[in-house]
Amino acid sequence: MGxxxxxxxxxxxxxxxxxxxxxxYQEHSVAEHSFKVTQVAQFLGNVEEQAGQAVNxxxxxxxxxxxxxxxxxxxxxxxxxxxxTSELREMLSEVEETMTRNFIDNEIPTEFQAIYHVLLxxxxxxxxxxxILAVADKVDLxxxxxxxxxxxxxxxxxxxxYSEALETIYQFRExxxxxxxxxxxxxxxxxEKGIEKTDLPALTTEIKARVLKEDN
Amino acid sequence: MGxxxxxxxxxxxxxxxxxxxxxxYQEHSVAEHSFKVTQVAQFLGNVEEQAGQAVNxxxxxxxxxxxxxxxxxxxxxxxxxxxxTSELREMLSEVEETMTRNFIDNEIPTEFQAIYHVLLxxxxxxxxxxxILAVADKVDLxxxxxxxxxxxxxxxxxxxxYSEALETIYQFRExxxxxxxxxxxxxxxxxEKGIEKTDLPALTTEIKARVLKEDN
Amino acid sequence: MGxxxxxxxxxxxxxxxxxxxxxxYQEHSVAEHSFKVTQVAQFLGNVEEQAGQAVNxxxxxxxxxxxxxxxxxxxxxxxxxxxxTSELREMLSEVEETMTRNFIDNEIPTEFQAIYHVLLxxxxxxxxxxxILAVADKVDLxxxxxxxxxxxxxxxxxxxxYSEALETIYQFRExxxxxxxxxxxxxxxxxEKGIEKTDLPALTTEIKARVLKEDN
Amino acid sequence: MGxxxxxxxxxxxxxxxxxxxxxxYQEHSVAEHSFKVTQVAQFLGNVEEQAGQAVNxxxxxxxxxxxxxxxxxxxxxxxxxxxxTSELREMLSEVEETMTRNFIDNEIPTEFQAIYHVLLxxxxxxxxxxxILAVADKVDLxxxxxxxxxxxxxxxxxxxxYSEALETIYQFRExxxxxxxxxxxxxxxxxEKGIEKTDLPALTTEIKARVLKEDN
Amino acid sequence: MGxxxxxxxxxxxxxxxxxxxxxxYQEHSVAEHSFKVTQVAQFLGNVEEQAGQAVNxxxxxxxxxxxxxxxxxxxxxxxxxxxxTSELREMLSEVEETMTRNFIDNEIPTEFQAIYHVLLxxxxxxxxxxxILAVADKVDLxxxxxxxxxxxxxxxxxxxxYSEALETIYQFRExxxxxxxxxxxxxxxxxEKGIEKTDLPALTTEIKARVLKEDN
Amino acid sequence: MGxxxxxxxxxxxxxxxxxxxxxxYQEHSVAEHSFKVTQVAQFLGNVEEQAGQAVNxxxxxxxxxxxxxxxxxxxxxxxxxxxxTSELREMLSEVEETMTRNFIDNEIPTEFQAIYHVLLxxxxxxxxxxxILAVADKVDLxxxxxxxxxxxxxxxxxxxxYSEALETIYQFRExxxxxxxxxxxxxxxxxEKGIEKTDLPALTTEIKARVLKEDN
Lengths: 216, 216, 216, 216, 216, 216
Hints:
The structure is a homohexamer.
Chain A: H1 3-12, H2 30-50, H3 57-66, H4 71-74, H5 78-82, H6 86-107, H7 110-119, H8 128-151, H9 156-171, H10 176-190, H11 200-215
Helix pairs in contact in A: 2-3, 2-8, 2-10, 3-8, 6-7, 8-9, 9-11
């Protein structure tokens, strides 16, 4: 009933923390994650543009900024559920979509409903911008799990998250921005203090080898 | 694979906070809520026993202590979802049960699986102990929402939670322990400092009136 | 030396809290504020577009998303300093700009330096997008201070911030989005629970009256 | 004056943190500890029952759930004092008991006073249930100190706590549940990520050796 | 064994929070309280000096800075115990003193032991400096409880603390610094935002009246 | 406008955290730092006195206690700025001084203004007490950065801070208290658990070697 409810809800995203139920040295709210994903997407978009791709910037920013808004309704529950079945994941996805639709119909003024149905729908489609979002989301997840592992978090979940995020990034390896990431950024990440003593170098090499094998 | 995973998971319940996405002055972990519900159930059980009811104490403690363990799998997402449709609620309930079953089958040693299938199943059945749990769960929810309202939390969610909790308690008004609660405890709650300036006295009176009307 | 440093620095913005040195019920990191400002700017941009204005969306998102990145270098110190002299404010602004320039020259890869010099420069210029940013920044500040006052924060600073933010918004009252804000959103804000007992209604009326007088 | 005070005090146990004065990566409230101890006791009770022992479940749950309630009165101060003299420890224990007695006499309704004098008295007696509580309390303490050491806490106190907890558990090594713990759980604990680089394997071996020697 | 242990222990005082077991909007560590008491004592000492009293500044700073160091050993447990009997309070005081003595004998290098036996002994004696410390300690306690009441904390403990602190300050009303406090500072405190709606004005007037009556 | 504002501002120093924008395992407020620096200065003063130096204790305590009060005005921003140019540092220092002067003139009662102009001015002059303050400030900074490195903080900033702090301490190596620190305390620090695996032993040796070389 008015955009005021929407503005207030932004603050609720400051109160939802990612990966609940696991000890973390540093918490990340959904609002903070959304900020970082949009920043990363902005950089990746610039890489694509420099490589000659036409970027629809409005679409890119919209997708990145709003991609986790629907977590408002059911929270960040995907991580643990992910290790269950794909059927469960789908059920939850449906719940989320229905609740988002209801929210827009009830809270957003009529003249803006069409806009918000677009803004808040799942953004990870096959367009260049949808793929940049998919990569940016995983890059931030990679940094978040990396940060925990580097600080000494013994929770195996973070190693799983790192692997899964890196594997997803590799799936987009035909993209210029992913090639840039793998060539310029990942090595800097692995050169960080203390990483040589963790599982990450071996894990990274193994994932890379698996991908190269697929490519041949 | 082994009860060690179960012991470790208890600590994860210290990292899941109730009612995510809403500003709170005081956070309550699922572990803390479980402790308080068991304490409240212990008291309510004693009221029933003094009133001549036979309490199966083992069943009561089991139900109260373990009632929210499955939140480990999908977090405390019921509150916002509750205001959606009952179909959604059911879907989530199913997800939770499946994940609990999988967890027991994968992590609990074979000789204890049967026990944990009983311990972790939904405890709010029609037995005396199941009804005491239903009441105790709502009493703690009432105290939690009361605490926020008393401290000045302007979030309307807490008023909704208070109402809904009190209404559920009233549904069990034929029980001795609920009669004790309504007669001896609720007035003390409403006599707390600063409550006279909140919606709670009117709300409580209104709920009571509605119930009395139903009774006639 | 490499964009990795930039990605890491995004996480530092999660560790800088706004308005340091004042008790707050709810903290807001610079990362969270940036997310909310971009969300608000996105909405205000849509209002302008519906009113027939041509919005440069890329510019708008860039300005909003990056507008507080330079706080990385000197933190959020403007609030208290603001009540000092304009000379001091200018000196600090210069420090910030120099440090931003140095950071780009030292840390950002050569081929992206020109881009980041644009992204990280002061965005509040006279373009439509610069003015939307100025308004969006104040809208979030208004909500943050409002949130503290509504929760009962006795610190006079938050009343000052509310006033100053609202006055700045009024300065842009020829804009469609500001007219929408004043007409549709501000009344909803003031209709929030408990606000009638605070200074805010009187303060808001007084600011409005002062502005109307100026207009005549 | 009324059970309302008792219910309110449960929330105070959420505000008392264990082992004050030492840096910890993860805090544990007395409420959370009580929940975990009761969960552990529940499991250990099942081990005993499977081994043919008759468990008084009501007594076991009562002892575990309430065993640290009296920390409400003087806080969790035993840890540092423990390394002082036994005379000091006894004095504090007396203070605690007197305050618990006074609390019951002043706050609990007359008809429940006898019950609470039983519920809140020291539960670690020579019964099977008292011994299970003694073990369960130390198992949770072991997990808490283990968690800190695994996360990299350099504070020597946690190594002392781990040793002392394990030694106490060994003192009950004639119990089925302790044999289960030593055979099935402790090895899983020591197989956790990163533990091989800590003092814990050597420490554990040394304690075991010392005990075996005593047994011969 | 070496002053390094003493320096490390200062950081432990950052991990001990005052008034444990009560919900607070703002926590105060023992280290922070000690800083504030020393600042207040510094001001009160200047008032006395301006009024012609000879202040032994070294003694004053020593007393104020170190007055709560012994809380390292048993924590901040006095508040709840205070409302028990004086016998209990004395027992705890003895425990604290013994532990302080032991700490100095074991950890402080021989050549500094005599100094630290003086620094860490109870400082609230009948000297001017001892009395200034007694007042400064209560002034900070008054501000701490005032802060909670002003922010809306419904916990009755803070009203008790405020009363008790003010009454103790009045006991030293023959001192120049207390007269200054009552004349110049207390009215400013009571003129703070929102205080007129709390119990504090009536409470303050009542305490003052009681004292004046005693004086006649 | 009354010393009440000054007393209130002490609490603001509890809300300013040192080294903002960097992840830390343990936060230190400016109030806590001030307490620890005063404690360290107290010890170093005793070392000097035992070595036959005349210590002006009032000056020493004043300098140590108040040395970071002006951070109230612009926050703890020096760390990152320090790695910029000395010109920038100077500009900020000027801002801080002007704001301190203004605060005293506006808020402190006339009869105490002269006193507070002395108390709040930069204390690190060439007197014995000014030099003890300079050392004590760096000793606490050394302990703070040491604490992060020991706990596993991978942020390179803390190694830079440790180095810089130790180098500054060495600059005062003609002082008795610094010789005591280097001979008795620093080895204990480096003998702490886990330090042998960090950069600190090599770094310390290197700094020492560099200094000895300068001395020849």
